[in-house]
Amino acid sequence: MTSTLFLAIDAPFAAFRWLQAGVYRGTYPVIPPSAAWGLALNLAGIESRGALDEVVTTIRPDAPHLEIAVGSLRIAQRSTLYQQLHSYPVGAAGKGLQAHAHGQKYWIAPARREILVGLRCVVGIRGDDEVITRIPRGLAGTLEVERYGLPFAGDNQFMFSRIDVVDDMAARWFVPVGVGETPKESTR
To answer: Could you tell me which residues come within 8 angstroms of residue 153 by beta carbon, excluding any fewer than 6 positions away?
Structure first.
């Protein structure tokens, strides 16, 4: 049987980045469906990670399928901060700096990162009853499973201040953009 659950999510700070490089790192304007799926499984106490002994952590092939809808209750403000990023240069670039660093980091560059301030959104989750009924119990701390980690708002320094189960509510819903469509206020 299929059930639907809505979560109101509130975070003072959040960052949901797509895979990107360079000195400016953007963020989605709201939690993306993939992160909402991971959050739902985390709250349900269901491990989504595949083998942990690989170079890249994969998703379990038998991880539960969930339909996810994301809506914005209030448009979060985008702000930026600067951070020093450490990387290892490719080839001979910067080799002269390495000797002067005495074993310390020698290839550090500033990067500007977008963050969301005042994230307030709703996530609709539809899926198998067995998975959906675990989420409120996980939020209440009554789910009897071994868990790992804390739910975080896209960056392990940004925690949610509230996650509440709510009735269906009016929200500005994010939808896929079809081929040839020219939407207003679209995001990558």
So the answer is: 11, 13, 14, 15, 16, 31, 119, 159, 160
